[in-house]
C-alpha cells in the first residue's frame, strides 16, 4: 500500500521539479539572448537555484517512489542544511538592514537618504566600485528616471518618490538648484548652496543625472533595505513550509524502513 506520506512527498517534489526546470530554462534563455544588464544579473543565481532544486526534487522523487531509504537520508540532510542556511541568511538580512531611515523634507512628498545611515557591510559589498557600475548601467538601460521628466514643479514636490528615484533622479534639496523639470535642474549663478560632492556631480545629461552621487547609492540601499525586510518575511514562511516537508519526508523514510522490515520478516517464517 502506498503510504500517504510517500504520496505527498512525491507530489511536492513533482511541483518543485517543474519549478526547477522552468528556472533552468529561463536562465538558459537569458544566456542565449541579448537582454539588459538587469536581466543578466539574475541569470547565474537563477541557474544555481534551478539546478539545486532539480537535484533535491530527483532525490525526493526516487527516494519516495522507489522506496530508496538511502536517497531519502541524503534528501533529509540537504533539506536540513537548507533550513539552517535560510535561517542564518534571514537573521543576517535583519542585522545588516537594521540601520537606515529617510529624512523628511519640509514641503515635499518624498524623503532623502544619506549613505552614512546604512550598515558598513551594505556600503562595502553592495555599492562598491564594481557593483555600482553594474547598478548604474542597469538604471540607465531601464531609463529609470524617464517617467518623471514631464512633471511640473507642483506635481513633483507633492509626488511620493521611491528612495531610488529621490536619490538618483534629482539633486539633493540642500544643493539649492532651481527646478526646470524633474530631471533638469539649473545651478544658481552663485553655485550650489553647500560645497557637497553630490551637488557638483549632478548632471542634466539624462544618462548621468545623479547616478554617481552618494544620495543615489543611499536611495538604492534604502530600496534594498525595504526589499530585504520583505524577503526576510518570505524566507520565514519558506522555512516553515520546508520544515513541514521535512517532517513528511521523515514519515516517508520511516514508512520505507517499516515496509522493508515487514518484507524482510515475511521472507523468514
From TrEMBL:
It is a multi-pass membrane protein. GO terms for cellular component: membrane. PROSITE patterns: TM4_1 (PS00421). Keywords: Membrane, Transmembrane, Transmembrane helix. The keyword Membrane applies. The keyword Flavoprotein does not apply. The chain crosses the membrane at residues 12-32, 44-64, 70-96, 231-249. InterPro entries: TET_plant (IPR044991), Tetraspanin/Peripherin (IPR018499), Tetraspanin_CS (IPR018503). It is found in: Membrane. Belongs to the tetraspanin (TM4SF) family. This is Tetraspanin-8. It comes from Ilex paraguariensis.
Amino acid at each position: 500500500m502506498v503510504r500517504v506520506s510517500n504520496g505527498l512527498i512525491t507530489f511536492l517534489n513533482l511541483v518543485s521539479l517543474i519549478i526547477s526546470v522552468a528556472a533552468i530554462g529561463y536562465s538558459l534563455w537569458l544566456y542565449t539572448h541579448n537582454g539588459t544588464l538587469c536581466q543578466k544579473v539574475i541569470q547565474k543565481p537563477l541557474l544555481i537555484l534551478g539546478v539545486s532544486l532539480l537535484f533535491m526534487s530527483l532525490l525526493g522523487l526516487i527516494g519516495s517512489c522507489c522506496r530508496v531509504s538511502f536517497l531519502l537520508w541524503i534528501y533529509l540532510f540537504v533539506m536540513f542544511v537548507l533550513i539552517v542556511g535560510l535561517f542564518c541568511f534571514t537573521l543576517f538580512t535583519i542585522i545588516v538592514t537594521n540601520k537606515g531611515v529617510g529624512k523628511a523634507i519640509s514641503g515635499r512628498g518624498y524623503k532623502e537618504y544619506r549613505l552614512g545611515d546604512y550598515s558598513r557591510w551594505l556600503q562595502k559589498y553592495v555599492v562598491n566600485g564594481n557593483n555600482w557600475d553594474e547598478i548604474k548601467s542597469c538604471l540607465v538601460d531601464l531609463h529609470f528616471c524617464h517617467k518623471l521628466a514631464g512633471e511640473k514643479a507642483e506635481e513633483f514636490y507633492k509626488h511620493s518618490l521611491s528612495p531610488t528615484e529621490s536619490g538618483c533622479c534629482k539633486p539633493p534639496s540642500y544643493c539649492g538648484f532651481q527646478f526646470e523639470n524633474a530631471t533638469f535642474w539649473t545651478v544658481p549663478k552663485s553655485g550650489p548652496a553647500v560645497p557637497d560632492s553630490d551637488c557638483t556631480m549632478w548632471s542634466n545629461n539624462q544618462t548621468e543625472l545623479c547616478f554617481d552621487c552618494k544620495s543615489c547609492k543611499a536611495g538604492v540601499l534604502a530600496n534594498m533595505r525595504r526589499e530585504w525586510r520583505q524577503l526576510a518575511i518570505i524566507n520565514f514562511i519558506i522555512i516553515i513550509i520546508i520544515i513541514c516537508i521535512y517532517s513528511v519526508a521523515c514519515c516517508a523514510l520511516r514508512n520505507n524502513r517499516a515496509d522493508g522490515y515487514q518484507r524482510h520478516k515475511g521472507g523468514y517464517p
